[in-house]
Amino acid sequence: MKTKNFKIGLILGLSLTFTTLTFGQYNECAGQNKIVEKRKVEVIDDDTGETTIQVVEQEVAKDTYGNPDGNQYDLAVDGAFEGQTVAVLHLYTGEGFDFKLPKEAIEQKGFSVYRWINNPPTPEELEKALEKACQLWVISSSQRKLNDEHIAVIKSFFDSGKGVYIWGDNQPFYSDANAVSKALIDVEMNGNTMGNQTVDIQKGGKKIGLTPNHLITTGLQYIYEGITIATLDDHEDLTPIIYGSAGNLVTAVYEKDNKRLILDGGFTRLYINWDTAGTGRYVKNAAAWLVNYEFFGDEVVSN
Predict the structure, then answer these.
(1) What per-residue confidence (pLDDT) applies to 49?
(2) Residue 269: is it exposed, middle or buried by C-beta count within 10 angstroms (0-12/13-18/19+)?
(3) CA distance 251 to 189
(4) Segments forming the whole domain that contains residue 136
(5) Contact criterion met (CB below 8 Å) for 45 and 75
(6) Which residues of the chain fall below pLDDT 50?
(7) Are 252 and 212 in contact (CB under 8 A)?
């Protein structure tokens, strides 16, 4: 009987096998969790010594936590959003939360970051600053710091198509998160659920893990859920992104009428156990998605 030996990796260079989007700011793997590439390999017949070239499909190399390894497997190309600003109302800074790690991550995609720390500016100052921002992140504290005028400014920004990321955490660290999300999309978060687990892609209809094949989950097969987590209300206009290990909805997106918003009950991921599964890539993907290129087009990408 004839046998064949495979020499894998001697001949490389075929294109990756992705379902691709045509938008130039996105990597070719956009919307894919499991990323596969085609490779040419030599196949040697043991009986005849004849060598042929065959094409095989293999998953790309993975990091320690099982996610595809390398920035080319993020949603966006590095530097794609040069000149765009992420504004951050960073209202909780306890436990050493300095936003250094998420800032460094999203800067890889070209964004600059402007933060208000612990307290918001006046509504007038916020409105003026947001004229130069492509998105706003609100990181809630345990007490209300945003007044109705602030929220009106944020709603106007959101209604214009600019992205909003609302971060809360376990009770009571969702005071401003709930005030803003209630005003924008009539959804709130609540509770205090223990997490501290890594979840993978949802399987078998179970509501645990990552929603597959969403732009935000590009290149993610595993993600750390956070420590203690608030749970989002169910809402027909929300698309789940992450269900926690307890089956609770941790992260979801709103995408309707050319508006984009992310609601998240686990801001501890931004500064605790950052180097565990997937957080850096997730943050980069979220910022890239919130740019809302599909609505604004080339005015929000670098040339």
Answers:
(1) 85
(2) buried
(3) 10
(4) 73-300
(5) no
(6) 1-22
(7) no
> Do 21 and 116 share a domain, yes or no?
no
Q: Give the pair of three-digit tokens for residue 243.
A: 């269900």
Q: How far is CA 135 from CA 27, 103, 163, in A?
A: 21, 14, 5
What residues have CB less than 8 Å from 122, skipping those under 6 apart?
A: none
Bridge partners of residue 89, in order along the sequence: 116, 138
Amino acid type, 127 = E
Let me know whether 31 and 167 are in one domain.
no
The whole-angstrom separation of Cα 16 and Cα 219 is 13
The answer to whether residues 35 and 138 belong to one domain is no
How much is the pLDDT for 56?
87
Closest CA to 275 of 102, 62, 94: 102
Per-residue pLDDT, 302: 65
Is 140 exposed, middle or buried (CB count within 10 Å of its CB: 0-12, 13-18, 19+)? Answer: buried
Q: Which residues pair with 7 in a beta bridge?
A: 42
What are the distances in angstroms from CA 61 to CA 70, 71, 219, 276? Answer: 9, 12, 11, 17
Q: Pairing mode, if any, of strands 135-139 and 163-167?
A: parallel
What's the pLDDT score for residue 42? 87
Domain count, the chain: 2
> Which pLDDT value is given to residue 256?
97
Look at the alpha carbons of 263, 77, 202, 211 in this order and tell me if their dihedral is positive or negative.
Answer: positive
Given 55, 70, 85, which residue is the final one in a domain? 70
Q: In what order do the strands lie in the sheet with 238-243?
A: 112-117, 85-90, 135-139, 163-167, 259-264, 249-256, 238-243, 209-210
**Cα 210 from Cα 202, distance rounded (Å):** 5
